[in-house]
C-alpha cells in the first residue's frame, strides 16, 4: 500500500514540476457564456458542460443544431476558455449557476449536455429545473470519482506511458497516455487503431488540454468524496448516458452501477472506445440529438 502511495506522489510531483502553472486570481468572472437575445429567438436552450481539462471546443459539432431551434450556453471550468483559475470547481455551485440561467427562460426547453465531470453537474441542474430539462451524459463521472479503483488505474496508465516515452516530460508522457483515453488500453496498442490514433493526434486544434498540476487539482478534486444527494433520481426519459466499453477512467461496471442508483438511466455503449467519445466516435452527437429531439 505504501508503494502505491509513493508512486502516486512521484507521478504527481513530476507532472507538477514539468508542466506550466497558471496563476490563480481573485477577480470574479461569469462562468457561463450565452447570448440572451439569441436564446429568446429559439425554442430550445442547449447548455454545454465540459469535463476536467477539456475545452469547450469539444462541442463544436453541435453548432449545426441551431437550424433545429437550439440556442447555446456554455459553462467554463476554472482556468479554461478565458475563465481565470479563480478557485476549485464545485459541482453543486456549478449546477446552481446553470439553474439560475434556466430560470431566466421559463418558456424554453432545456437540454443539458455534460461530458465526464460535466454530466453530474447537468443532472443536478436538471433535477432542480424539472421536467422541461433533459440530460445527455457523455462518459459520465461517477460518485467519488470512481474511488481508489479509478485512481490506481490512472496512476498505472501514466506510469506505463512514462515508461514507453522513456521520459518524465509532461508532453511526452501525455502523447503516450492520450491513445488510452481514445481507445482503452488494448486499443492504444492495437495496430488496427494506429491510423485512427495518428489521424486524431495530428489535428491542429486541441481537444484536451495537456494537464498542468494546478488545473488538474482545481478540476479533479471536486469529485473526491462527492456523492449525489440522498434519494436523488431522474426519470429515464429525462436522462441518457453514453459510454465507451474500453473507458479506463470510469469503467462500464461503474457506469452501470451509477445509472441504476439515479433511477435506472438508460446507457448507450460504444464497443472498443475509451473516455474521449467526442473524438473517438463523433456520431455520438447524432445519437444525443436524437434523444433530445424525442423529448
Automatic annotation (TrEMBL):
The keyword Signal applies. InterPro entries: AB_hydrolase_1, AB_hydrolase_fold. Residues 1-16 form the signal peptide. Residues 47-285 form the AB hydrolase-1 domain. It comes from Pseudosulfitobacter pseudonitzschiae. Keywords: Signal. It comes from the Bacteria. This is AB hydrolase-1 domain-containing protein. The keyword Nucleotide-binding does not apply.
